[in-house]
Amino acid sequence: MANARNAQRAVLLALTMLTAVSGTLAVAQSKKAGAAKAKGPAVAKSTPEEIASAEETYKTKCSICHAADGNSPIPNMSFADGEWRHGATVPEVVKTITNGVPGTAMMPFGTQFSAGEIAALARKVRTFDKKLK
To answer: What confidence tens digit (pLDDT) does each residue in 80-101 have?
Structure first.
C-alpha cells in the first residue's frame, strides 16, 4: 500500500513539474513572438538578380502612376514628398505592394512577383524620398 502511495506521489510530482515547465516554455514563446511582432513582419531577402530587376519593374509597373523619378504630380502618389500614407518602413511598403490599397488605384502585386522581388522594389521606391535612410 505504501508503495502505491509513493508511486502516486511520484506521478503527481512529475505532472506538476511538467506543467510548470510547459507554462515557462509557453511564456518564453509568447515573449519571443511579441518581440518579433514589435519589429514588424519579416521581409524577404532579395537576390542580386531581383535587386537588379527592381529598376525595370518600377519602370514597367509603377512609373505610370508614381512617375519615373517617384515624384508623381497625382495627389498621394509621390514617393519624393516624404508623405507615406501607408507607412515608409520596408515592411510597410512591402505590405502595400503585396496587398495593394483597397479603394485606391494601388492594386495588389503579391501574385505577380516573388517576395524577394517585392522587397527589392520596396527598397527601390524608398530611394526617391531623400529623407529616408
So the answer is: 999 999 999 999 999 999 999 9
